[in-house]
């Protein structure tokens, strides 16, 4: 039996050719969600012998080559919002679910009982547990930013994309063949991590390709906001397109900004 498809597939594409491992994505995510509706991100005894700090994403580093010809490759990792998400299937309370309208996997903190089945089921280690709140937490693609109509269009992107100084994180809708993320995945050969687990991760990576081209002197000078929107994928205005379909389901922007489970927006897996 085929897996049901969401109406849109909002994702973050990570360009490994641009990422240099500064961890700005991780820290910007931490900063945003510390005070967002999906926070707090707990810190315990940060200067003690056994500190604990909760993050919704991380940057791992792998070595390539043989000494002395070795290089380190940084790889930012957050929830892959899998098409066939095992975390959703094992949750006994239905607290974690995949949304019908945008494909984002979200945890309803009001329903989560802290059984941690989702943490065990995720083969990528992309879900963590908040010992103070007593609930599981993970990347939710900053839906509180995406559908905040008080933000300018170019700011309605995930915090990690917003904070990347290299433009290595690009946001968009992979179900739209004309989107920037669809274009670069096709052009540069996007790939997923952990394909062998059969969860069908939605988020993809672009391979290392060597020195990139541009900018060139004869390129037209664009307004700062437009250049930023093109670099981050905000130029496609994916959240607005999602909202148009959400309205057909009787969903409001506020419904999409929250973690609360709404049966109109639950994709059965």
TrEMBL record:
Gene3D superfamilies: 3.30.70.20. Residues 70-101, 103-132 form the 4Fe-4S ferredoxin-type domain. The keyword Iron applies. The keyword Protease does not apply. Keywords: 4Fe-4S, Iron, Iron-sulfur, Metal-binding. One of its GO terms (molecular function) is metal ion binding. This is DSMO reductase subunit B. It comes from Acidianus hospitalis (strain W1). The lineage of its organism: Archaea, Thermoproteota, Thermoprotei, Sulfolobales, Sulfolobaceae.
